[in-house]
Amino acid sequence: MKEHMRTSRKRITMASLYLGTGPLEQELVNTLEETLQCPGSSNLQISILLDYTRGSRGQ
């Protein structure tokens, strides 16, 4: 999945119940940030859909 993110030039769309706080999740976010900063990604659109109620449990 990360490799596909790195080579995306038009759009990245992700949907999940929640985004955790562990090292794998951080690596995923870092990959998205790196992809946005690559030359040629000025038209890249990223959409992330998360379940608000699931992500707010335990607070």
Automatic annotation (TrEMBL):
Q: Where found in the cell?
A: Mitochondrion
* EC class of the enzyme, as a word: transferase
Keywords, A to Z, come to:
ATP-binding, Lipid biosynthesis, Lipid metabolism, Mitochondrion, Nucleotide-binding, Phospholipid biosynthesis, Phospholipid metabolism, Repeat, Transferase
| Chief place where the protein resides | mitochondrion
GO molecular function ontology, one term from the record: CDP-diacylglycerol-glycerol-3-phosphate 3-phosphatidyltransferase activity
> Which reaction is catalysed here?
a CDP-1,2-diacyl-sn-glycerol + sn-glycerol 3-phosphate = a 1,2-diacyl-sn-glycero-3-phospho-(1'-sn-glycero-3'-phosphate) + CMP + H(+)
Q: What is its EC number?
A: 2.7.8.5
Q: Name one GO cellular component term.
A: mitochondrion
Q: Which InterPro entries match?
A: PGS1 (IPR016270)
GO biological-process terms attached to the record? cardiolipin biosynthetic process
Q: In which pathway does it act?
A: Phospholipid metabolism; phosphatidylglycerol biosynthesis; phosphatidylglycerol from CDP-diacylglycerol: step 1/2
Q: What does this protein do?
A: Functions in the biosynthesis of the anionic phospholipids phosphatidylglycerol and cardiolipin.
Family per similarity comment: Belongs to the CDP-alcohol phosphatidyltransferase class-II family.
What is the name of this protein? Answer: CDP-diacylglycerol--glycerol-3-phosphate 3-phosphatidyltransferase
